[in-house]
Each structure stands twice: as C-alpha cells, then as structure tokens.
C-alpha cells in the first residue's frame, strides 16, 4: 500500500524486471491443483443448494439510506423499503423533495423516516451525513446508491462541466459513499449495498456516451468490490446488488427527451423498478435486470456494425416522433 500524494511527489523510479526463478512452475502447479479441488467442492455445494428453497430475507427494522430519495426512482425505493418495515434515511441535494418523501412515508408506514440534505459527490458532506445519521438514527444497514444524473448529449458538442458533474454524481459518489459507510457495516457484521446502474451499461447507445461510461464505472466498481470482499472473508455478511433499470418516466425534462424515442424504447414506472430492486434484494439476487426486454438488449450486442448504424440513425432521425434532430442537439 502506498499513498498517492507521496508517490507523485517523489522522482519517478522505473521498476526492475523481476527474474522468474525455477520454482515458479511448481508453485503454479500446486495452485492449479488446489483450485481444481475448490471448484469441485463448489460444484457439489451448488448442486446440493439446488434442492434447498431459500427463504427471502426479513429486512424489517433495518436502517436503509437511499441517496436521491427525494424524487424519481429514489423516492419509490424509499416507499418500497418502508413497506418492508425498514426505517429510512432519505438523502438528497433537493432537501424539499427529501422532506416531502420522508413526511409522506412517516405518515403512511409507522416507521422512522428522516430527510437529510447532502451532495453525495462531496466527501466532506458524506462524512457529515454519516455522523448525523448515526447520531440521530443509527448505523446504516442497507445503503442504496441511487442518486444520478441521466445525461444525454451529443458527445462532440457536450459541455465539459456537465461531463465532470455527471462523472462525480454518477460514479465517484457511489465509490465514496460505499467507502465511507462500509466500515461500520463490517464492524456490525451486516451490510447490504445496492447500486443503481443502468441498462446503458450493458448496451452502449449514441447520445449517452458519458452517461454510459459513468454507469459502466459503477458496474465495474461493484464487481471488483465483490472480489475484494470475497478475499477479505467479509462476503458472509456484506452483500452487493447491482440494479440495471430500463428507461423510466421520472424527471420531466429527461422524460421529454426520451419521448423522442418512445416508440422504440419502453419506459417503466419508478415504482415497478423499485419493486424489482427490493424483491431482488430480499431474494438475494445479486444482479437485478429491471426491464421486460432483456433478450432484445442482449441480441443487440450481436448486431453487425451496419445494422447498428441503421437502427440508431432510424431512431435518431425519426422526425415522426420528434420535432427536431436529436443528433445535432445537446439535450
Ligand atoms: N430515468 C431513467 O430512465 C433511468 C434509467 C436507468 C437508470 N437510471 C438511474 O436511476 C437513478 C435515479 O434516476 P431518476 O430517473 O430517478 O433521476 P431523477 O432525476 O428523477 O432523480 C434523481 C434524484 O437524485 C438527486 N440528486 C442529484 N444529484 C445529487 C447529488 N449530487 N447529491 C444528492 N442527490 C442528488 C436529485 O435531486 C433527484 O432527487 C440514477 O442513478 C439514474 O442514472 C435512470
């Protein structure tokens, strides 16, 4: 382990090429044999588990924290978690929205629900949030990293400040939130971290270059973290979930942009996606695809270059459904 600041202050020192000694082949052979035994045991356990019915997890009385909980999908997730009996910390940069969500939930479900103002792309604000939530409520059991900016733009004309903000809110915030909240979960030996990704991290689409990259970052982050947690032995009590929602009708401006392609892309309600996400969490499903057309998205990956071009240009040029040319606009 090294400190990045100290490393960058030092003069650059090229590494010496390590010499392979003769025992490395033997070491590789021993490791390969051990791994083969582990794989056989894993297959055996998997087979036994096929015949066991796994009970859904009871998350009642757990404390869930949802970022971006003031509006859209985050708001629906807060309601759905409260329905399961969770207490909820509703976190948003839009305090009015968070307050509204928390008040309605408190009224409807007799659980504890509090609003918190926080810009989740700011590390100091996250440290303050953690202190406030732990003092006023308790340690977070379920962290839902949902806050995000669905950013559509022609990449070549897109605004550099918008790109920076999208990366900070969509990707950096999820890494910082997880880093700052996971230590308490490990100490308490319980934690569920749900990451809201996007279908665009699976199917790359034009006009969503930066957005798609930020969501692929989230996808890669959680998958790599799974490996870290496995190696450190924390995988028994820390579980990670990735949710891939299809397009939803949430914020008005985004919905208007997506109207351009409404005849091609279905749009789901945020309640439906929240339902899929929370059902997946209690069923222990690590990858949750909140869409009705996953096979079509997978099939799209195998299209030839010209077929992809044809489909994309037909959608984007579609003046029947959109009074303007989406290709030349920063949306
Ligand atoms: N809407 C879609 O079609 C769609 C599709 C797939 C995935 N998603 C993802 O779902 C998540 C929710 O999207 P949505 O459509 O509900 O968005 P939304 O714009 O309706 O709501 C996002 C919420 O996050 C809050 N927020 C934004 N920046 C924040 C910050 N820095 N700190 C704290 N809160 C902040 C906003 O105030 C808002 O309340 C996002 O991660 C988005 O990328 C959306």
Automatic annotation (TrEMBL):
Which keywords does this chain's UniProt record carry? Membrane, Transmembrane, Transmembrane helix
Q: Which domain of life is it from?
A: Eukaryota
Pfam families in UniProt: adh_short (PF00106)
Q: So where does this one cross the membrane?
A: 26-48
Asked whether the keyword Transferase is assigned, the reply is no
SUPFAM superfamilies registered for this protein in UniProt:
NAD(P)-binding Rossmann-fold domains (SSF51735)
Q: Does the keyword Membrane apply?
A: yes
Entry GO MF terms:
oxidoreductase activity, acting on the CH-OH group of donors, NAD or NADP as acceptor
Organism annotation: Chironomus riparius
The UniProt entry's GO CC annotations, sorted and at most eight, read: lipid droplet
InterPro entries per UniProt? NAD(P)-bd_dom_sf, SDR_fam
Q: In its UniProt entry, what is this protein called?
A: Uncharacterized protein
Q: Which family does it belong to?
A: Belongs to the short-chain dehydrogenases/reductases (SDR) family.
């Amino acid at each position: 382990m090294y400190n990045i600041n100290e490393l960058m202050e030092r003069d650059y020192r090229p590494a010496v090429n390590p010499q392979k000694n003769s025992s490395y082949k033997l070491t590789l052979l021993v490791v390969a044999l051990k791994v083969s035994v582990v794989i056989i045991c894993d297959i055996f356990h998997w087979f036994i588990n096929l015949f066991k019915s796994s009970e859904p997890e009871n998350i009642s009385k757990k404390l869930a924290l949802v970022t971006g909980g003031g509006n859209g999908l985050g708001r629906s997730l807060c309601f759905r978690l409260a329905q399961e009996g969770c207490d909820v910390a509703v976190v948003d940069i839009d305090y009015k929205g968070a307050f509204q969500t928390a008040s309605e939930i408190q009224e409807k479900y007799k659980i504890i629900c509090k609003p918190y103002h926080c810009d989740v792309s700011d590390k100091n604000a996250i440290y303050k949030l953690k202190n406030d939530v732990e003092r006023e409520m308790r340690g977070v059991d379920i962290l839902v990293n949902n806050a995000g900016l669905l950013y559509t733009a022609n990449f070549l004309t897109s605004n550099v400040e918008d790109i920076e903000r999208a990366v900070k809110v969509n990707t950096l915030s999820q890494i910082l939130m997880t880093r700052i909240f996971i230590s308490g979960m490990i100490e308490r030996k319980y934690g569920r971290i749900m990451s809201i990704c996007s279908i665009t991290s699976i199917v790359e689409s034009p006009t969503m270059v930066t957005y798609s990259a930020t969501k692929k970052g989230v996808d890669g982050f959680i998958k790599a973290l799974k490996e870290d947690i496995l190696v450190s032995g924390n995988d028994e009590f820390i579980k990670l979930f990735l949710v891939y929602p299809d397009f939803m009708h949430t914020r008005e401006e985004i919905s208007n942009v997506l109207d351009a392609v409404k005849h091609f892309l279905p749009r789901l309600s945020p309640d439906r996606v929240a339902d899929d996400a929370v059902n997946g969490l209690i069923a222990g499903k690590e990858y949750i695809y909140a869409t009705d057309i996953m096979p079509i998205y997978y099939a799209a990956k195998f299209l030839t270059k010209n077929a992809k071009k044809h489909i994309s240009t037909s959608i984007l040029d579609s003046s029947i459904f959109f009074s303007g040319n989406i290709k030349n606009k920063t949306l």
